[in-house]
Amino acid sequence: MTQASAGALLLIDVQLGLDDPAWGRRNNPGAERNMAALLAAWRASGRPVIHVQHMSRRPDSPLRPGLPGNALKPEVAPADGEPLFRKDVNSAFIGTGLEEHLRARGIASLVIVGLTTDHCVSSTARMAANLGFEAVVVSDATATFERVGPEGERLSADEMHRAALASLHGEFATVRRTREVLAGLAPA
Question: Strand ranges (DSSP E) for the chain?
Fold first, then answer.
């Protein structure tokens, strides 16, 4: 288990609007349950927890501020004192104070969970690595949707998820499952 297993838990875009059927078929219906288990373990251990919320600027997005879909899902909502960073692009590091927050607190590693694997989770993990942070992406605490490729081919949500994780693993992050991360969570 890498050192990042003891880092800050970063929950990305776990918002009600991502339950909208317009997104298409999604993989990993148990992702939020795993996110909640990790969140409970992080809170119990006193480790840092950080939330990220997408504030879409697209007029047709259910993630736009002011719409019910913009709200964070209750099972992973921030507790008092847990920071919430709001973004309007894929990476949680762009246009937010996330990097400064981490550096000011000496946090060098992140355990990343959330939605969606191939968009905001991937963008944030890649940028974390580029900025010198160690990252673990939790495969069964992330999920994504099916996509249509540039030549019209339909890629299942599972294909997209596996490809995104394969692209991250070993280069930008270490990919682990919830049970592995929890097993490696030694007392703080």
Answer: 8-12, 49-54, 84-87, 109-115, 134-143, 147-148, 154-155, 174-176
Length of the chain (residues) = 188
* Cα 113 off chain centre by: 3
Q: Rounded CA gap, 101 and 99, in Å?
A: 5
**pLDDT, tens digit, for every residue of 145-157?**
999 999 999 999 9
Range of the structural domain that residue 117 is part of: 3-183
Determine, yes or no, domain membership for 188: no
Domain CATH for 147: 3.40.50.850
Task: Provide the whole-model pTM.
Answer: 0.95
Give the chain's domain count: 1
CB 110 within 8 A of CB 7: yes
